[in-house]
Amino acid sequence: MSIHGDRILVTGGAGFIGSHLVDLLVDAGARVRVLDDLSAGKLDNLKEVRGDIEFINGSIRDAGTVNNAVAGCRLVFNFAANADVPRSVEHPDLDFFTNSVGAYNVLAAARKHGVERTLQASTAAVYGEPVYTPMDEGHPLRPISPYGASKLGAESLGLAWHHTYEFSFTAVRIFNTYGPRQPRYVIHDLFRKLQRNPRQLEVLGTGEQVRDYCYVSDTAGAFLALALNPKADGQAYNIAGGQPVSIRELVAMILDTLGYTNTEVTYTGKSWPGDITRLVADITKITAQGFAPRINLSEGLLRFADWIQP
Predict the structure, then answer these.
(1) What pTM, to 2 d.p., does this model score?
(2) Which of 37, 103, 164, 195 is most buried, by the most CB atoms less than 10 A from its CB?
(3) Which residues contact 41 (CB under 8 A, 6 or more apart)?
(4) Which fold would CATH assign to domain 7-177+214-239?
């Protein structure tokens, strides 16, 4: 299935993962339209393709703006969101109106304009604390943060519309993605702390938290593959790297990547409200559709170090 010459919308396309997907779409010959209010994204993330895309500075919270952006598009990828769990705890209204109501605006416009498929960037936070691990797509959905709840609202709307209106929709539950252009989160923050002081490193939590990291090019590639796969319609999929590690193990890998042998590491023993202790994905469902992570964590950390170091 070719997308060459097709108009495709990426909301949040100036953000971390969204901008990498934009790169892939441009490389595939698509006519890409980006809708982003630049509250979290940056035009600098699109500098390599700026002359090849249409950029709209606007928010998915504005239904009229969304309607105009969706018009004429074959595919829509909705990445626009507040993706900061601590911020969602402080401002749950922001998450609800951006992540849930904003998603409704995207879905309504996509249905109105006959979009072939809409893909929603969702999150592992919809699962909450695990009942079992690894968590497959059938795991209970019990989010413990306003962020997780707002994203569950977005994907639930889309899946309900699929069944009610024969609307083509896929939800993609991202676990932990990292790589170039990442503005924050664990791997980014650990590298930045070590840049400031390679002798001492303070880490939130106990170090026993477990995460499943996926390099950003693999995550973006999975979104594109699912968009082109008719079997993905009406489904939810986990995306992760398939290599879960504890934060202690991650810290050791980062120190080894940087060649630091004398760093004193301390753990605060406490993390932020809404932080899930174990996020380990079962990616059997998406691998059955041909997805396989290409960049393992060791290689990914080397690539990330090359990008983040001046």
Answers:
(1) 0.95
(2) 103
(3) 12, 13, 14, 15, 16, 18, 19
(4) Rossmann fold (3.40.50)
Please give the positions annotated as active site: 147
Burial of residue 233 (number of CB atoms within 10 Å: 0-12, 13-18, 19+): middle
Six-digit token pair at 157?
């709307």
pLDDT for residue 90 = 86
Question: Hey, is 302 helix, strand or coil?
Answer: helix
Q: Range(s) for CATH 3.90.25.10 in the chain?
A: 179-212+243-281+295-308
pLDDT at 82: 87
Q: Which amino acid is at 227?
A: A
DSSP per-residue letters across 189-201: HHHHHHHH-TTEE
Task: Specify whether domain 179-212+243-281+295-308 bears CATH 3.40.50.720.
Answer: no
Location of each CATH 3.40.50.720 domain in the chain: 7-177+214-239
Distance from C-alpha of 283 to C-alpha of 286, rounded to nearest angstrom: 6
